[in-house]
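Exercise (ungraded).
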Amino acid sequence: MSANEPGKGLVTPRGFRAAGVVAGLKSSGASDLALVVNDGPEFGAAGLFTRNKVKAAPVLWSQQVLTGGRLRAVVLNSGGANACTGPEGFQTAHATAEKAAELLGCGAIEVAVGSTGLIGRQLPRDLVLAGVEKAVAELGATAEAGLAAATAIMTTDTVAKQCAHADGAGWSIGGTTKGAGMIAPSMATMLTVLTTDAVLDRAALEPALRAAVRVSFDRLDIDGVMSTNDTVLLLASGASGVTPEPELFTEALTQVCLDLAGQMQADAEGVTKRIMVRVTGAADEDDAVTVARTVARDSLVKTALFGSDANWGRVAAAVGYSDADVDPDRLDITINGSLLCRGGVAAGGRTDADLTGPDILVAIELGLGAGTAEIRTTDLSHAYVEENSAYPS
Amino acid sequence: MSANEPGKGLVTPRGFRAAGVVAGLKSSGASDLALVVNDGPEFGAAGLFTRNKVKAAPVLWSQQVLTGGRLRAVVLNSGGANACTGPEGFQTAHATAEKAAELLGCGAIEVAVGSTGLIGRQLPRDLVLAGVEKAVAELGATAEAGLAAATAIMTTDTVAKQCAHADGAGWSIGGTTKGAGMIAPSMATMLTVLTTDAVLDRAALEPALRAAVRVSFDRLDIDGVMSTNDTVLLLASGASGVTPEPELFTEALTQVCLDLAGQMQADAEGVTKRIMVRVTGAADEDDAVTVARTVARDSLVKTALFGSDANWGRVAAAVGYSDADVDPDRLDITINGSLLCRGGVAAGGRTDADLTGPDILVAIELGLGAGTAEIRTTDLSHAYVEENSAYPS
């Protein structure tokens, strides 16, 4: 695996251009509309969307688009989720795709749309369409263009998030993501676009994307909340002329997704601690995920870790109420390397664990089988409460 | 239904005595051990316990005791949960029951034990046993004795919680509870003792207790966390000589439990808003509970309400990711009387709803069937974070 090139992101793979512009959707006047274009020669694509039953209009539109397995372009906007907006909102998403298609010379059914921001308000359609026009005029394949797109999708994110991976065989993967709150099991108000110049069709892209997301974005759980707008898209231009082995491509895509998920964790709303919950010895992988997720979501665990308190009793309680096979007498809990609970009983003083740094590893051994899983989360801090009681997402 | 007599609580029904003493388990020096004694002539009892798979020693002991369906006494302590304490912890619970039994002249198998406080530390057995001795010496049937017992079980509670109901036919119900944090679907680090002088055996008490708890304590969900120690006990002395109709008794018991649950909600850690989530029009009652609980636990909903923001979009998102049948196009959301979302689309400005007061009603109509449910919760405030990052529960 070659080194990452974080400078370019989306446009690291050949065949892609990007832009980020001010459409006027954010009252702050910051950039709020991004466009990513695949110039081919191939146009294979795959997508994954929120499992929330209340789906935003752009999700409904893009799910329809993806049934074709081809994408020429993606339009993303911040400054409004276009969710709970009814037929009018759906028409806005549709009109956005039509506008981009008209300017790029393709069909609307080849253009996906993604939105993020406040739920329940109509997007000003005229501003969105004018923004698409502006973005088409500014398309470029430079590092600046990629960064502009990554910047335009930010909401409460404090930094733009990009990643790229170049393989020695001549193909590469790039990506950008946004999401700092509402990050949840099923991916959060997370908009992610991934690009590659590998020669891969939809049939190869879909399983690779599913495999990569399953162990990255799906295992980032900041507050257990699932958004109406989660969208992950993967576009392949084929411009490298190289078809990698499926396992090799999946592995590289997974690394890019893990890198982006790590950036989201580090920039989560109000984070003061980056927490990894690692479960081993579960009856199976599903049980391991269930236990890790339950601990990662537990408000009492998260507030204790905010207070740098290795309160393993709260971890034990969370393990116990998870919907997984658990034998209390086989439970070991180790926090930042200190074994605090062995066989369900106190093993050391909880002051033995040093939690003063920003990274905390909560390792839970269930002693039942070979199932393992890791879930990344953050602490529950004053800043989380502040940001989410004031920010009208 | 007669008026409540909140002054006496546990000892309102005839046949009961109570005490609350300083055993020295709390470093603050506050009272920390309560004893409740049933003087008969009947000794029927029922109990419900946490569904957490990691159960505290007193829960394991009391579950065993309750298989007999009889209780002569209950010993409760704050200042230590006696959870994750292994065989030594179980022996402490057993020794506590034996001590009380010896002093009261009954069998240890007729004495339940309940504990609350920090998980993972052994209780100082000598102090507990000396505390039992002291409590037996101070037993009384006065309002002061009932209040002393209610006070001795407090942890982060700021007020003692009592309730009593006297029926015109000559029987009554009394109760006390504690629990201000870690209050969850399955009852919380909640210790509750209910007493009655009605003539009812175990076969009558058990279904009444299950029915009352199902719609009261089980529908109070402060932070979704389930404790290792939750215990609800119901003791019947038969001293009134009256056997009420089962429906009448269940109804009165439910009212007492709802009153106590309301006191717990009002005193929850860091509460600034008392929130009722009411779901109507669900496919069935289970779905209504699922939707209400998902909304009640959603960190983004809770922080918005802390900020007095009627952010119905976050409510809609939570409804959408609940594990219940939901049709987004039939979803209505009304907050404090203002219809904000109709048919899944914005119906009014969210500033229409006045959330400045301490009580918030979030009413969700699903438009699918006749299922209804109410879940009580609180907001997620700075004080919640403060209390739970500093208090070593």
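Further reading is listed at the end of the chapter. For now, observe: Residues 1-6, 182-187 of chain B have pLDDT under 50 and may be disordered. The first strand of chain B starts at residue 16 and ends at 21.
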